[in-house]
UniProtKB/TrEMBL annotation:
<comment type="subunit">
    <text>Monomer.</text>
</comment>
<feature type="region of interest" description="Disordered">
    <location>
        <begin position="1"/>
        <end position="32"/>
    </location>
</feature>
<feature type="domain" description="UmuC">
    <location>
        <begin position="37"/>
        <end position="217"/>
    </location>
</feature>
<keyword id="KW-0808">Transferase</keyword>
<keyword id="KW-0234">DNA repair</keyword>
<dbReference type="InterPro" id="IPR036775">
    <property type="entry name" value="DNA_pol_Y-fam_lit_finger_sf"/>
</dbReference>
<dbReference type="GO" id="GO:0006281">
    <property type="term" value="P:DNA repair"/>
</dbReference>
<keyword id="KW-0548">Nucleotidyltransferase</keyword>
<dbReference type="GO" id="GO:0003887">
    <property type="term" value="F:DNA-directed DNA polymerase activity"/>
</dbReference>
<dbReference type="GO" id="GO:0000287">
    <property type="term" value="F:magnesium ion binding"/>
</dbReference>
<keyword id="KW-0239">DNA-directed DNA polymerase</keyword>
<protein>
    <recommendedName>
        <fullName>DNA polymerase IV</fullName>
        <ecNumber>2.7.7.7</ecNumber>
    </recommendedName>
</protein>
<keyword id="KW-0515">Mutator protein</keyword>
<keyword id="KW-0235">DNA replication</keyword>
<feature type="site" description="Substrate discrimination">
    <location>
        <position position="46"/>
    </location>
</feature>
<feature type="active site">
    <location>
        <position position="136"/>
    </location>
</feature>
<dbReference type="GO" id="GO:0006261">
    <property type="term" value="P:DNA-templated DNA replication"/>
</dbReference>
Amino acid sequence: MYSRFVPGQGFARTSDLGNRSRRVTGEDQQPPPIRKIIHIDMDAFYASVEQRDNPELRGLPVAVGGARARGVVAAASYEARRFGVRSAMPSVTALRKCPDLVFVRPRFDVYRAVSAQIRAIFARYTPLIEPLSLDEAYLDVTENIPGIASATAIAEAIRAEIKAETGLTASAGVSYNKFLAKLASDYRKPDGLFVITPAMGPGFVESLPVGRFHGIGPATTARMNSLGILTGADLRARDLAFLESHFGKAGRHYHGISRGIDHRRVEPDRERKSISAETTYDNDLTSLPAVEAALGELADKVWRHCARHGYSGRTVTIKVRDPRFNDVTRSRTLRDPVGGAAELQAIAMELFLHSLPVEAGIRLLGVGLAALTDGEGDEARQLRLALGPG
């Protein structure tokens, strides 16, 4: 039986809450119980594994990836991040920022093995594990195997076991929903733990810049900023109709998270089928250069996600919406995975030219990558995808 926090009343059993709700409202339906969610995020995972296995790399700025002109940083150590080196950054840019950067070729077989170790630790506490990548996952510990009442205590135990068994550090966020747990895990990185309680949630969100919100990337941040939405408080001040008119279906999600509300459940063993990004424009796009630039931003966003999570994909899809809300989609499946953000943009642009005349106006654009692979047999493709030659 779940317990649920009720402002001003503390924790109560859901059966009591249901009876109380029916007495007050006369309805049989009760709100869902507040869950206990943990987000675990390994600290600089790929780079930390390399520094663990090669003591000579410890303390040095390390990038996992290809060092040549077309290479991309797949992961950066915290020593490298101090210079501004980030994942998905072109290697030449990373070297300009940090001339002493040490590049290490990736070992995905090792990363997967360590990830499996970590997943086994999670499974000691709950079967409700939603992996987001090799290095992060959501856990629902509302009901857990050891019967521990405190989600914070579980997070502390998991972090200690990861350190003892793998030699690596993990950061953890604990809260009552996925959105806030993710924010919390980023709050005291590296090797930190932070808790956002139900009482803290709405206020915590209000104080943050919208660019810190998980799921709001640079392009959406820029659009929000142009609308005067700089912080969570600004986002909360906009009503649902406004947000949906400017951000489509995502507007409802933004409306909820600005209030600390996120009803998404932890989905065990969720299989990702595609990665996509789309933007609704305040002013319709009416020229090919504007469309090409917009597709470039979307392709970069999709590619950053691919590089971080080690995915490869062969099917490129675009979505185009005209001012009358008519949608057109076009797709192409390639023999080999796409080789980079520039190639993704080029294919998307070619697909666009067979869609709608730009003079009619473009209200929304979307770019997606599907037919994803991340298995052992696709290692060479993954390296080409995320790292380039070198």
